[in-house]
Structure formats: C-alpha cells, structure tokens
Amino acid sequence: PDPTTGAPMSIVLTPRAVSRLVQIQQSDSNPSLALRLTVESGGCHGFQYTIGLSSQVDPEEDVLFTDEDTGAKVVMDEPSLELLKGSTVDYTQELIGSQFKVVNPMASSSCGCGTSFDIK
C-alpha cells in the first residue's frame, strides 16, 4: 500500500504493452518472463528508467503485477514502485525503433528520449 494514502500502489499496462509482453513470453517459451522496470538516480533529469526482461522475482524486494487475462507480467522493486505508482506502460513502434515506454504522472520533466525524468 501507498504509505501516504494507504491505497494499493499500481501501474497500468496498455493493450499494446500486454500484447508485446505476451509475444515475448511465447517466443521465449517462458511464461514467467516479466518486464522489469527500475528507477535509478542519474540521467540528465535526476532519475532514469531501466527497462529489461527478467524471470527472477525476489519476494523480499520485488512487487509483481500480472495481467489476469493474458499472464503479461511487470516486476519492480519497492523503491522504484514508489516513483512509478500510477504510471502507464506502453509499447511504441516508431520509425526509429520500437520500445516499452513509461508515462509517469509524477514526472515534472523528462528528456527528449523519455528515459530520464525529474519528480514533481
């Protein structure tokens, strides 16, 4: 739960993100594969997102979100969740490439590539 409000902390996966995660799980024949989101200090705005794939979940440190309909999974550590609560994870396909992208309502500014951000 959110220490400020007591409400459950959550994130939202867009249908595109869910679809891509399910494709990755199927192509790797690994239903436990999850998108790992981490926030680290650094980047040009103070914090930066690290996005990768992982089938390792530490029950002591990580929070696992699973889409009940499809099995798509996102995992993050508690400190990252605190900075990402209420965020939306999307999968974008553009001419320069495709990527998972975080839309964070707590970010006051971000860099052009969207990997670095500052908190309100």
Number of strands: 9
Averaged pLDDT: 81
Oligomer category: single chain
Q: Rounded to an integer, what's the Rg over CA atoms?
A: 14 Å
- CA-CA gap between termini: 20 Å
Q: Based on helices, strands and strand pairing, what is the structural class? A: alpha+beta
Across the major sheet, the strand order is: 4-5-2-3-9-8
The helix fraction, in percent, is: 10-25%
What order do the SSEs take from the amino end to the carboxyl end, as H and E?
Answer: EHEEEEHEEEE
The description of the largest β-sheet is: 6 strands, mixed
CA-based shape = globular
Q: Would you mind describing this structure in some detail?
A:
This protein has 120 residues and is of the alpha+beta class. The chain is built from 2 helices and 9 strands. The protein has helices at residues 15-27, 78-84; strands at residues 12-13, 34-41, 47-54, 62-66, 73-77, 88-94, 97-103, 107-110, 116-119. The strands form 2 sheets. Strands 4-5-2-3-9-8 form a 6-stranded mixed β-sheet. It has a 3-stranded mixed β-sheet with strand order 1-6-7. The longest helix is centred in the N-terminal third of the chain and has 13 residues, at 15-27. 24% of the residues are buried. The mean pLDDT is 81.
Map the helices and strands:
Elements (H helix, E strand, L loop, with lengths): L11 E2 L1 H13 L6 E8 L5 E8 L7 E5 L6 E5 H7 L3 E7 L2 E7 L3 E4 L5 E4 L1
Highlighted features:
9 strands, alpha+beta, 120 residues, single chain, six-stranded mixed sheet
Give a brief rundown of this model.
By secondary structure, this protein is of the alpha+beta class.
